[in-house]
Design a protein that fits this description.
Elements (H helix, E strand, L loop, with lengths): L6 H29 L6 H7 L3 H29 L2 H33 L3 H10 L5 H16 L10 H4 L3 H5 L23 H6 L11 H38 L2
Helix pairs in contact: 1-3, 1-10, 3-4, 3-10, 4-10
């Protein structure tokens, strides 16, 4: 059956595997970026138990590197025209393919749970901010950093601290601190511009936008990087694998 082998098909398979190999390295690098959490939003997902975006990223680190290794092996097997090696290549890449499918689905579905509305984030903020627990201290530091760096206040707006019951309100009366002073506008030296004006809610001295949009953007960036880039690799890998199966039957 050697006469059925087509150099053109082998060339296409080698080129396809080179593209998958490089895409796998890119996926691995992007997933490492996600697990490094540059936006520092993991505490929100970790406390809620909906951190599968990160679980998907860890799987993608593994699958991205495996795509690279398996495709290198696949190119060698194609060049050598070794039927047993090609069969092993097909088995390995199908296993990696299934793992990457799990990563994409996991990241995308749990993204919706967090970013579909702000109620989860708001409830979590009110329940843990200034709470004297390990989760509370971690989330308090995160919210303080968000409100300082992103110039925002609360999940939706400063009224989150006034309209709802919270741990923060149980510690500070509305007359003393209607909202955390990290909501106050600051000068270049990070000194509050006007503490009394901020306490009274004057728009010139308090940040009026909520922090949810920043959190939403961060989670979407992570999920899109892991799930949609991974899905694109899967879509390209599928015809390459089918062509490799056809080539195997002609060897």
């Amino acid at each position: 059956m050697a006469e059925k082998r087509s150099p053109f098909v082998v060339g296409l398979l080698v080129m396809g595997n080179i593209i998958i190999m490089l895409s796998g390295l890119a996926l691995c690098a992007e997933s490492i970026w996600v697990t490094a959490d540059p936006y520092k939003v993991y505490p929100i997902l970790g406390v809620s138990g909906k951190d599968d975006v990160y679980a998907g990223a860890w799987i993608s680190i593994f699958t991205g590197f495996c795509f690279f290794c398996v495709c290198v092996f696949g190119i060698i097997s194609l060049v050598k025209h070794n039927r047993l090696m090609v069969l092993l290549y097909l088995v390995l890449i199908l296993v990696v393919y299934l793992f990457e499918c799990a990563s994409c689905i996991s990241s995308y579905t749990h993204r919706d749970f967090v970013v579909s509305n702000s109620r989860l984030v708001t409830k979590q903020m009110l329940s843990y901010y200034t709470s004297d627990t390990p989760q509370g201290r971690e989330l308090t530091q995160m919210w303080d950093r968000f409100m300082m760096e992103q110039q925002c206040c609360g999940a939706n707006d400063p009224l989150d601290w006034v309209n709802y019951t919270s741990v923060f309100r149980s510690r500070y009366t509305e007359a003393v601190a209607p909202w955390p002073f990290y909501c106050c506008k600051r000068d270049r030296n990070f000194i509050i511009v006007n503490e009394e004006g901020c306490r009274l809610g004057h728009i010139d001295y308090i940040h009026t936008k909520g922090c949810f949009e920043h959190i939403k953007h961060a989670v979407q960036s992570y999920a899109w990087g892991v799930s949609w880039f991974g899905f694109a690799i899967l879509m390209f890998t599928c015809p390459v694998v089918l062509l490799a199966i056809y080539h195997y039957t002609t060897m």
